[in-house]
Amino acid sequence: MNTLADQVFLLARRSVVRTIRQPANVVAPLLFPMMLLAVNSGGLNAETRLPGFPTNSFVAFALAVPFIQGALFATMNAGTDLARDIQTGFLSRLSLTPMRGIALLAGQLGGVMALGIVQAAVYLAVGLLVGVRLASGPLGVLVLFAFALLVTLGFGALGAFAALRTGSGEAVQSLFPAFFVFLFLSSMNIPRNLIETTWFRDVATVNPVSYLLECVRSLIITGWDAEALALGFGIATAVAVVSLGLASWALRVRMART
Amino acid sequence: MRTLAVARGVAWRTLHNVFTNPSLFIPSIVFPLFFFTAFAGGLSRVQDVPGFNYAEGYTAFQFVFVLLQSAAFGGVFTGFGIARDFESGFARRLLLAAPNRSGIVLGYAVAALVRWCVTAVILTAIALAVGMHVGGGGVDLVGLYTLAVIINVAALLWAAGVAMRLRTMQAGPIMQMPVFLVLFFAPVYVPLSLLQGWIHGVAVVNPLTRVLEAARGFLAGSPTEVAAAFGAALALAVAFSVWAFRGLRKAEAAG
Amino acid sequence: MTDYAIEASDLVRQFKNGPRAVDGIDLGVTAGEIYGFLGPNGAGKSTTVHMLTTLLPPTSGTARVAGYDVVTEGQNVRAAIGAALQEAALDPLLTGREHLRLQASLQALPRANRNERADELIARVGLTHAADRKVRGYSGGMKRRLDLAMALVHRPSVLFLDEPTTGLDIQSRTALWDEVARLAREDGVTVFLTTQYLEEADVLAGRVGIIDHGHIVAEGTTDELKAQVGRPTVEAIPDDPEDTPRLAEIFAGFGDPCGSTKGVAVRLRTGDTDLADVVRALDGAGIAVANLQLHQPTLDDVFLAKTGRSLEGSDEEETELARADLAAEPA
Predict the structure, then answer these.
(1) Sheet of C264-268: strands edge to edge?
(2) Phi, psi dihedrals of residue C232, rounded to the nearest 5°
């Protein structure tokens, strides 16, 4: 009899193999955020001259964004892969094995998180290459990776929920614009305290993505900012808990085996 | 005359598809509005950067970029439709039915333009409603929108050329990515004079920079680099029309 | 009392806000039998299979598979069955071999045996040359063969095949039939086969249950079912079309007239033995025939007799309903 850990490992391995065999799913999460980082760092570097801007390096400021963007890609990958399993009937096939439902979810997310680590390593490496230094030091790197994993887990579970609920890859893809909106209506490109337009600042203040960005940013620019870390980790944990709960519920409904 | 008849048919059908399908129509309206909101609303503080001297304010500064961006992506979205037509086999039907196949490309171009005009009207109305300052007169505004029209056509011709060569929806990223890069390696957030380092060098050689600066000049009522801008835009349109018509020949040859 | 490998008693499945896809099915399949479940699209075949394979809980009624209750002992049922459902449920990004290894792992085959079992099944279904290619490059027939191999990994005693040859060419179909027949004959596997192809049921199944609108309308061996409908028909096409009325008059003496597109046909009153008399009668009347054929009753005739309509060419409903129901919350 397989243990749950065996099943999770098998399905996580499958998730990783499938992602690697879709080069677009590997390249896009690496390339696109880096391009946007390059474009925005160059284009908005003048922002560093604003009074109160927290750093002289816009790259350091903007490096937080790829870590959160990478989570968005995790949503898409986890969701579309699961949706494909539903549409092809492969989920039914898995349902007929002794596999526990939670193993499927954990395996899928495990695979996505494994790739999330690789993404985070690449983003960090690029940042270091262009001269960014983490104010929080080597320990900060570990904390950063832990945070990236947590965010990837939460967003990946959201994608899985969408797939399990709808059974449709197109429905998962349609989440992309929504996440895009959350990302842009945040402190992605400018610190919240420097946003002049009141309504935009208010939206960014209630937008949880702002706190995810600021948590990463604090590790890079500030060092150890307890408030930023608490808010970031708190919100990431809340997202993970809620989305895992939703995904588990949707999985139980979808795999209505007797 | 037959070319025009073919063009009219293709344009009608493409526009009918777009305007009766919310999933095709709404994103082309919503995304430019969203970018306008995010850039003009979120980054308005950038106008306080020393050296930022655009007289009409940051809202107008970003409006011009978003207008050109919507024109460019409007062309690309129509290119997606062309790729979809090839993938579904409908394009083969068009190639068989059309006595003059150049009319097909012309029809898609007309559709892209009409589609973008709707977006442009809505975007302009909203920009004016939120208090955008317009320094230019009638002639200046004609210049602004003419530049946008040329960019729309150029982008459509680029995307059409890709679509007709690859004939699959998977060509989407190939159509989109170069346009995205050309747009964002221009002075998006600040004027060219405030860019530094490698991005300044890239922006200087980017043809879209001339177009963007001239367009902003038109809106402000102080046209600048007009000849260079129209030259660059028209050169892009001509080059991509060759690209598109050669793509058409390749599609014909593929059967 | 017969020990059934599959038995169902008054099995019902009511779709949420929809019709009863399965409306009281009773059946019993003995061990080692190939049971054909024949019916048009929308009849309830797939829904029945989904209930028997524990993928869908019944609304009411009971069913046991391999001695286990499908509702209360689902895990045990799943351990004893293999299933190749309506779509070849495969991952396009994995190779054939990877599929079988994954299945073997999930079925908890001992680690030492997994590769060997995968190789054995690959050879058995004739996929050795393609085992290490990704499934997205497989033909429809290859996918079906891999699908069958996946269902056999853990040596199930009961095999469910839901329209396994739909869309396949003749060669692939015949190869699959051969393998299914061998499984039952040599390995003693009980096979529950749903199909809309008369020939498939005729060739493979020992017994056939015909289902329509969620009910079993007829059940028995193919010979028993055809005999219920009875009698063969004779069809003749006269050399000279002007002989048609005389031909019809002669035929009327042998049985009941029935439809013919080109000539005259009659359902014989007493059976095959009438044929010689028919020929003698035609000869005696000096009617030359271009073509004379004896048609045995088909399962379509059985279906027609029981339901008033032909089996082939019915509207498609059930597949979409079954899929939607699997996706929706249980009723």
Answers:
(1) C255-258, C264-268, C233-238, C289-295
(2) -75, 165
Q: What is the pLDDT of residues B147-175, one digit of tens each?
A: 999 999 999 999 999 999 998 887 888 89
C257: its two tokens: 């007239």
Looking at CA atoms only, how far is residue A228 from chain B in angstroms? 21
Contact list in A for residue C87 (CB cut-off 8 A) is 88-89
Whether C188 contacts C36, CB under 8 Å: no
Average the pLDDT over C5-20 and give the result. 90
Amino acid in the structure at residue C197: Y
Flag whether residue A168 sits within 8 Å of chain C, measured between CB atoms.
no
Physical contact, B and C (3 or more Cβ pairs within 8 A): no
Across the interface, whether the CB atoms of A200 and B198 are under 8 A apart is answered no
The answer to whether B133 and B54 have CB atoms below 8 angstroms apart is no
Q: Which of residues 41-60 of A touch B (CB under 8 A)?
A: 41-47, 49-50
d(CA C96, CA C128): 9
Q: Residue C280 burial (CB < 10 Å; 0-12/13-18/19+)?
A: exposed
Rg value, chain C, Cα: 24
Q: Which amino acid is at A76?
A: M
Instruction: Please check whether residue B110 is in contact with residue B74, taking contact to mean a CB–CB distance below 8 angstroms.
Output: no
Do chains A and C meet with 3 or more Cβ pairs nearer than 8 Å? yes
How far does chain B reach from its first CA to its final CA, in angstroms?
25
Tell me what pLDDT residue A202 has: 96
Q: How large is the ipTM?
A: 0.84
Strands (E), A68-222: none
Touching subunits of B (3+ CB pairs, under 8 Å) are: A
Residue labelled with tokens 């095709």: B24
- The span from the CA of C66 to the CA of C51, in Å, is 14
Percent of the residues in chain C that have a pLDDT greater than 70, as a whole number: 92
* Beta bridge mates, C234: C266, C294
- Please, are residues C55 and C237 in contact by the beta-carbon 8 Å criterion? no
- In this prediction, residues B192-221 reach a mean pLDDT of 94
Buried (b) or exposed (e) across C140-162, using 16+ Cβ within 10 A? Answer: ebbbbbbbbbbbbbbebbbbbbb
Give the 3-state secondary structure percentages of chain C, helix then strand then coil, rounded to 5.
40, 25, 35
What is the predicted pLDDT for the residue at B145? 97
For tokens 């900012």, what's the residue?
A225
- Please name which of B120, B117, B146, B174 lies closest in space to residue B237, comparing C-alpha atoms: B146
Q: Would you call C53 and A96 a contact, using CB atoms and an 8 Å cutoff?
A: yes
Count of residues in chain C: 331
pLDDT tens per residue, range A172-186: 888 888 888 899 999
For residues C35 and C6, the answer to whether their CB atoms sit within 8 Å is yes
Do the Cβ atoms of C105 and A2 come within 8 Å? yes
Q: Which residues of A touch B30 (CB under 8 A)?
A: 177
The reported pLDDT for the residue numbered C272 is: 59
Number of Cβ within 10 Å of residue B204's Cβ equals 12
Judge whether C35 and C192 are in contact, CB under 8 Å: yes
Pairing of strands C289-295, C233-238: antiparallel
DSSP-derived 3-state class of residue B191: coil
Residue C126's φ and ψ, nearest 5 degrees, are 70, 35
Q: Please check whether residue B49 touches A, CB under 8 A.
A: yes
Angle value at C-alpha C135, between C130 and C137, nearest 5 degrees: 75
Give the domains, in start order, of chain C with CATH numbers: 4-90+138-226+309-327 (3.40.50.300), 231-296 (3.30.70.260)
Residue among C95, C159, C140 at smallest CA distance from C122: C95
Mean pLDDT of the region B77-82 = 89
Q: Which pLDDT band holds residue C312 (cuts at 50, 70, 90)? A: low
Residues A100-151 have pLDDT tens digits of 889 999 999 999 999 999 999 999 999 999 999 999 999 999 999 999 999 9
DSSP state of A73: H
